[in-house]
Amino acid sequence: MLRFHTLDSWRGICALLVAVMHLPVLSHFYAEPFFRNSYLFVDFFFVLSGFVITFSYGGKIVDWRSAGTFMVRRIGRIWPLHMVMLFLFFDLELVKFVMNGWYGGAHQVPFTGETSPEALLTNTLLIHAAGIHDVNTWNKASWSISAEFVVYAGFALTLIAFRSRATLALALLAAVGAVVLLDFSPHYMDTQQEFGVLRCLFGFAVGHLVYRLYRHTAAGADGGPRFGTMVEAAALVLVAIFVSRAGRGPVTMFAPLLFGVVVYIFACADGFFTKLLSTRFFRRLGELSFSIYMIHLFGVEMLMKVANVMEKVTGWTIKAPHVPGGDQTEILVFGGLWAMDALTLVYLAIVVVISGVTYRMIEKPGQRLFNTGLLALQGQTEKGVRPLAH
Q: pTM here?
């Protein structure tokens, strides 16, 4: 089966960039505009999803049964690890609840606001990014998979309802979503709970259109265009410049379009960077990308808890109020910038190693479990409708 190894590698790189953005460590990386704006690489995820999902399922979803199969497979892909991480965050909140009962002084009453029981339910159902909550909840990174889950369902319904005109319908939906974001989102593409589903829809539809373009050109009888090292390098430089300067203004609306161009280039390319991204190391990062993305904020929580204990035990000043441009209320500042660089790299290495464990012990078994259950259900259904022997 055809595999876009380079695109898989892009997932791993994007996941690491998002992890660096969320890490509250005052390193050389922290205040750099490129890393502060790396939230935009979530939109790269959405574009890649539209491309890959269309490649894998675009010709298979033709009725309600095939749509159901698609949704079960997607649930099996994202729900098991999501639930494990939700359970860990629940346990952490339970510890806060107990400690607050003993000692008091909690900044926020446990199991309220972003960790409310209502949010726990919507997280379990994967609908927490559908505009239900005013704040990001529990494992805050999971808003994007909730948005994707809603868009997956919309994608399947669109394929069934519009059939040969589904691409046009998705293009129109993407345009509507982009207009709503442009007019009503306070920070344009930097939206999660309020307009996260529309943000995902915009990127996903762009990825879908890019795959249709790829099929029409690069996958044709003549082999289509083949981009070399210079085009690849230009695409990388353009992404770096765009992300560094995009901020949170209206220019961010171009992010899915730019990422769509980059996805097309690397789907067709055969230059140096394509070969580099096709190596075993980067392909492994691509495999672990979902785990990296889903576990990294729990790692941040644990790191800050260790810092709290160290401050109390040693009396050292380890944390400080966040610096301008930061996302966290506190940031680690001990040891100087180079020490913080080392801590950042160690943190990323630990996240990758743990991701290897969660990929092998949670992601893959979860997929197998859902796929086995799906096959068994389909077998029972077929057995139930089989005509009686004469």
A: 0.90
> What's the CA gap between 145 and 56, in Å, rounded?
18
Return d(Cα 135, Cα 114) in angstroms, integer: 6
pLDDT digits (tens, 9 = 90+) for 369-388: 998 888 777 765 555 444 33
Please state, in angstroms and rounded to a whole number, the distance separating the CA atoms of residues 312 and 307: 9
How far, CA to CA in Å, does 95 sit from each of 111, 156, 202, 290, 316? 11, 41, 39, 27, 25
Measured between alpha carbons, how far is 192 from 248 in angstroms, rounded to an integer? 13
Token pair recorded at residue 262: 């980059």
Query: Three-class SS string for 226-249?
Result: CCCHHHHHHHHHHHHHHHHHHCCC
| Rounded Cα–Cα distance for residues 243 and 289 (Å) | 20
Rounded distance between C-alpha atoms, residue 306 and residue 99, angstroms: 16
For 139, 248, 321, 337, the CA distances from 328, given in Å and listed in that order, are 15, 17, 8, 18
Compute CA 263 distance to the chain's CA centroid, rounded to the nearest angstrom: 16
**Which single residue is written with the structure tokens 């309020």?**
194
Longest dimension (CA), the chain: 85
Tokens of 78: 């994202």
DSSP 361: I
Distance CA 150, CA 177 (A): 14
Q: Which residues 6+ apart lie within 8 Å of 254 measured at CB?
A: 242
Radius of gyration of the chain (CA): 22
What is the per-residue pLDDT for 387? 39
Confidence of residue 80 (pLDDT cuts 50, 70, 90): very high
Six-digit token pair at 297?
């904020």
Nearest to 226 by CA among 263, 266, 186, 188: 266
